[in-house]
Specification:
Blueprint lengths: L2 H17 L2 E6 L5 H13 L2 E6 L1 H8 L3 H7 L7 E6 L3 H14 L4 E7 L2 E4 H9 L3 H29 L13
Antiparallel strand pairs: 1-3, 1-4, 2-3, 4-5
Helix pairs in contact: 1-3, 5-6
């Protein structure tokens, strides 16, 4: 590998850390090409990207990002790829965990989110959490429920006292 190619790879890894909301180190040794391609497609759908890296080049890129250096320096042995999460980090963790259940060769070594290092246990816990969209839906349902109950109670009260339940049933004057 030429020096210019190495510098380009280091720059790409460093830019990935600068843009990403989180990152994960995975070991993909033993996976078939079709499986890696499928994983890349699933990760792309989750707004993330997987980059196969050479450990020495990744360590050089970590110098620009001390949090990444702290989180990943000890796990950079063997065959590694960095998964950059540009969107929702929880969705990427779910994608990796679900794919890891189907393909045992994929091992999640460590991760990083919001400046905090994550080990494999924390990543698996993160994968069990609901995503942003699901949390938003649950919050909206919480906001909607009290007003819906109030409307039902008022409607029931009006029906018991002989008042029409809706405007359509009210007599026209």
């Amino acid at each position: 590998m030429l020096r210019s190619e190495k510098d380009t790879d280091i720059k790409l890894i460093s830019e990935g850390f600068a843009k990403a909301n989180g990152a994960f180190i995975v070991d993909f040794k033993g996976m078939k090409v079709e499986q890696v391609t499928t994983l890349r497609k699933k990760l792309h759908a989750a707004q993330s990207e997987m980059k196969v890296v050479r450990n020495t080049l990744a360590r050089r890129a970590f110098k620009d990002h001390p949090v990444a250096d702290q989180a990943f320096a000890s796990t950079m042995t063997g065959t590694n790829a960095i998964v950059f999460a540009f969107g929702e980090v929880v969705a990427v963790a779910k994608t990796l965990a679900d794919f890891g259940k189907d393909v045992e060769a994929l091992k999640i070594k460590s991760g990083m989110m919001d400046g905090e290092a994550l080990d494999s246990k924390k990543i698996n816990f993160l994968a069990t959490l609901p995503g942003k969209d699901q949390l938003r839906a649950q919050l909206l349902m919480l906001f909607k429920e009290p007003s819906a109950r109030l409307a039902r109670v008022l409607n029931e009260y009006a029906t018991k006292n002989g008042a029409p339940a809706t405007e359509a049933e009210a007599p026209q004057a």
